[in-house]
Design brief:
The structure is a single chain. With about 190 residues, the chain is an alpha/beta fold. It has one domain: Rossmann fold, CATH 3.40.50. It has seven helices and ten strands. It has helices at about 15-30, 85-95, 110-115, 120-125, 145-150, 165-175, 180-190; strands spanning about 5-10, 35-40, 40-45, 50-55, 60-65, 75-80, 80-85, 105-110, 135-140, 155-160. Strands 1, 2, 3, 4, 5, 6, 7, 8, 9 and 10 form a ten-stranded mixed β-sheet that branches. β6 (about 75-80) and β7 form a beta hairpin. It is globular, with a radius of gyration of 16 Å. Residues about 180-193 have low confidence and may be disordered.
Length: about 190
């Protein structure tokens, strides 16, 4: 079986999971890596989260994914949020077109994928393909078991509200790459056999 290093990133709400992903993407780009996938940054009005965007990591294009208020086109209810089905479809296309790449980020897989069989299911298929060096998937703590049952997981990164996610991303990248990317390159070459 191909070796694909997939790491799960988890933590409570507002722990900085998307910030961690963004900073990891910046560090790997500086190392010459092609970064692809999706981020889900918050839309804030003051300090209140009123929405969620979907951001294509390769192109920087963003689209409004979710709203705290139900109004067209946000009509798919999921917990406290209302999602735009067209943006879910766009995000699926982005994920499918992300491979091959070096760093593949999926922010996030949640109850829509693991419990309802919808959303960005294409990500689960893409993550099983040996067409990237390193995968990072954001998962809520209560869905870790679902993710571990669905994906070949190399490890789990846990954030909490006391940590600086940007500093954690830098430290994690430095530790994992060892300055030379030997571990990651070794796993990548195994996956390419």
């Amino acid at each position: 079986m191909d070796v694909i290093p997939i790491w799960l990133l988890t933590g409570p709400r507002a722990a900085g999971k998307t910030t961690f992903c963004r900073h990891l993407a910046e560090h790997t780009r500086r190392a010459g890596w092609d970064v692809a996938g999706l981020l889900s940054p918050a839309v804030l009005e003051g300090e209140v989260k009123t929405g969620i965007l979907a951001e294509d990591l390769r192109t920087g294009e963003t689209r409004p994914l979710a709203s705290a208020a139900c109004h067209p086109p946000f009509d798919l209810s999921l917990g406290d949020w209302y999602l735009d089905r067209a943006v879910i479809a766009w995000g699926s296309h982005v994920l499918e077109a992300s491979l091959p790449c070096d760093l593949f980020i999926v922010d996030e897989l949640g109850p829509l994928e693991f419990e309802l069989g919808g959303g960005w299911l294409i990500a689960l298929t893409a993550l099983r393909q040996p067409q990237y060096r390193l995968g990072l998937v954001v998962v809520r703590p209560e869905l870790l078991e679902n993710a571990q049952a669905s994906l070949p997981v190399a490890g789990i990164i846990s954030l909490d509200n006391s940590k600086d996610p940007a500093a954690e991303a830098r430290a994690w990248w430095e530790q994992l790459s060892g300055g030379s990317h030997d571990y990651i390159d070794h796993a990548w070459h195994l996956g390419q056999r």
